[in-house]
Amino acid sequence: MPNPITAHTSVVTSQLALLRQLEWKVRHAVENVLSGEYRSAFRGRGMEFDQVVKYTYGDDIRDIDWNVTARLGEPYRKKFIEEREVTLLLVLEDSVSLQFGSGEKSKREALLELAGLVMLLGAVNRDRVGFLHASPEGYVLKEPVRGRGQILHLAAQLLGRPAPSLESGAVLQPAPDDAQRGLKHRATPDSASSSSAARPSSSVLSPPSSAIPWRLLAHAAPRHSILIWLGDFPPRVHPEGWSVLTRRYQTMGFRVDDPWDRELPHTRTLTAYDPTTGQLVNLNGASSAQRAAHQLWVDQRDDAFRALFPDSLSRLVVGTGEDRLEALVRFFHARMAAGSRR
């Protein structure tokens, strides 16, 4: 029987090793290619105008508002404040579908790495960072903190959150004989997979996630904070209260895709386990009907993702085989370039 203390120590050690590796990458990127792009992507440039106040002796004469001064007959100046502090709130929706991976990394591993990189970027830039981890078993909310040590501690906690149980809410059932029924995706060759899901494709959107406490999120961070929602984003309706969050926060969506998310492999019949329904499902990559059903799901999923984040600069899709840091660099560079044109 495995020693639980030894197993826990091994998990903690691997988390810290990954964080050290990610931190080195982040610091190297900040020094070389991300020096101003991250900050500009979230803050903009320069100082922020606050209000017009009476000019007093010793104030900078360059700040005088001559229009207001001429109208009121006495000197007034523009008052500026430093740009508001950035608070990052990461919302990681940890669904069982993230545990699929056709390559070296599962979608969950890649998404956690992406979340860790964002948190470390916030630490390097002296921002406040917090997270909410939601899964079918419940949620954990950590309020935003500042400082390298505290943020590293939070990042280790997020990376160490247990994956949702593959058996939660699902009772194993045999695979259906009807190979022509509409199928989603996710399969592993020749055997049942405990890390994947294959579901019927339908034009009806699924209900919103009930694992994320949306009302609580509306009060989890200061107004104008950055809310980054990381997840698998299946096709489903908007969660209740989402419009309130988009008005309160600057919202962004980060998604990680496996190659099989985009296209089914051209191969013989595969058998996959869908933990969301508890079914074993037979997939035929050579079936035109199943490929068409999968493509329908792909289109519905992309449409739902765009509906949540209409601005193309507010959503990021990264492949499991891509370099996550390079993808973030491109994302922040695009936001900075767009901001300079506005």
Number of helices: 10
CATH superfamily caption of the largest domain: von Willebrand factor, type A domain
User: Structural class of the secondary elements?
Assistant: alpha/beta
Low-confidence stretches: 4-9, 169-204
- In the CATH hierarchy, the third-tier topology of the largest domain is known as Rossmann fold
**Helical amount:** 25-40%
Count of distinct structural domains: 2
The total of beta strands comes to 10
Termini gap:
62 Å
- Order of the strands making up the biggest sheet: 5-4-3-6-7-10
Mean pLDDT: 79
What is the H-and-E element order? HHEHEEHEEHHEHEHEEHEH
Gross CATH architecture of the largest domain: 3-Layer(aba) Sandwich
- Write down the oligomeric state: single chain
- The CATH class assignment of the largest domain is Alpha Beta
Global outline = elongated
Compute the CA-based radius of gyration: 24 Å
What percentage of amino acids are in beta strands? 15-25%
Biggest sheet details: 6 strands, mixed
